[in-house]
Amino acid sequence: MKGLFKGCLTIPNLLSVLRILVIPVFAYFFMAGEPVWAIVMLALSGISDFLDGKIARKFNQVSDLGKVLDPVADKLTQITLAVLLFISFNKATDATLKAFSWIFLVFIIKELVMVVFGGIMLLMNLRPSAAEIFGKVATFAFYAIMLVIVAFGPEVGLLNNVFRLPPLVMMILVVISAILTIVAFISYLPDTFRQFKEKLSKK
Q: Using CA atoms, how far apart are residues 113 and 108, in angstroms rounded to an integer?
């Protein structure tokens, strides 16, 4: 764990910390019905997520702490978003939208499982798998789609008085994001199992 903080004072790590700090601020504005600030906070989170990886690779600021902070920030953001949208859709007056709220449990369960197994791996002195192409695509799609829903989703959108996304279109987008999330989750399994197997075989 001591090596985890070696060379940790980098811009990418500060951006990851910023993303974590933005989460409760976004949740507050979302629940308070403050559309502009809620959307700004979510957009800020997504932009900082994009920038930290680019900066880390371009300026050789990749660190062990960054490999932990980045996915933690992603998971906390995605869990918060999924929980807020699950609650909001559960309050919808439209029966179809209310029934559709269950799909957000897919995101919540997936991220919670990864958080638990990531914690177990760290305790076993293993490193959780870094995001592969499937994980990056799923994360990008999640941010983009949820930003659209938070802004323009039927009943739950903070700006749906300006433009309201058709319910069917919204459902298709969320299903696409859920499928990408499941594919990304499956892509992490081979390396995770390999590390557990190697660790156990040494014992």
A: 9
- Residue 127: inside a domain: yes
pTM of structure: 0.84
pLDDT one-digit tens code per residue, 17-39: 889 999 999 999 998 888 888 88
Residue 93 parent element (H or E): none
At what angle are helices 35-58 and 133-152 packed, to 10 degrees? 160
From the number of C-beta atoms within 10 Å of its C-beta (0-12, 13-18, 19+), residue 150 rates as buried
43 within some domain: no
Domain assignment of residue 107, given as a range: 66-202
**Which one, of 148, 193, 187, 189, lies nearest residue 171 by Cα?**
148
pLDDT in tens, 36-84: 888 889 888 888 888 887 787 777 777 767 777 888 888 899 899 999 9
